[in-house]
Design goal:
The longest helix has 18 residues. Helix 1 packs antiparallel against helix 3. This protein has about 100 residues and is of the alpha+beta class. It has 3 helices and 4 strands, in the order E-H-E-E-H-H-E. The radius of gyration is 14 Å and the shape is globular.
């Protein structure tokens, strides 16, 4: 069973461009580290502070190995440093969901 990780970000409403840059950085790293990236979603209409990242991973055990690769990846490290330096992410929450077959 595939697990889908939804990351909900609360971002600075004046730093949408920085979030987009951050999302594009993960677009290269996440697949290389072993997850199936569905995409990142930045504010467009409505809330200017809510953004999402969504990817699939085979199982929670695979998630742990994926996270280790992500943290060790040089581009991943640059992206983490960029977010820390620019401080455009105010909050980040992860939830893991399984698809309901209907």
């Amino acid at each position: 069973m595939t697990i889908t990780c939804f990351i909900r970000y609360e971002i600075d409403p004046y730093a949408r461009d920085e979030f987009v840059q951050y999302a594009r950085g993960w677009g290269k790293v996440i697949p290389r580290c072993g997850a199936d990236l569905i995409g990142y979603f930045a504010p467009h209409e409505g809330s200017a502070t809510t953004a999402y990242g969504v990817y699939n991973i085979a199982a929670l055990a695979d998630y742990e190995a994926y996270r280790e690769r992500l943290v060790a990846d040089p581009l991943g490290q640059e992206n983490y440093a960029f977010a820390k330096r620019e401080r455009f992410i105010r909050r980040e929450d992860r939830i893991f969901l399984g698809r309901v077959d209907i």
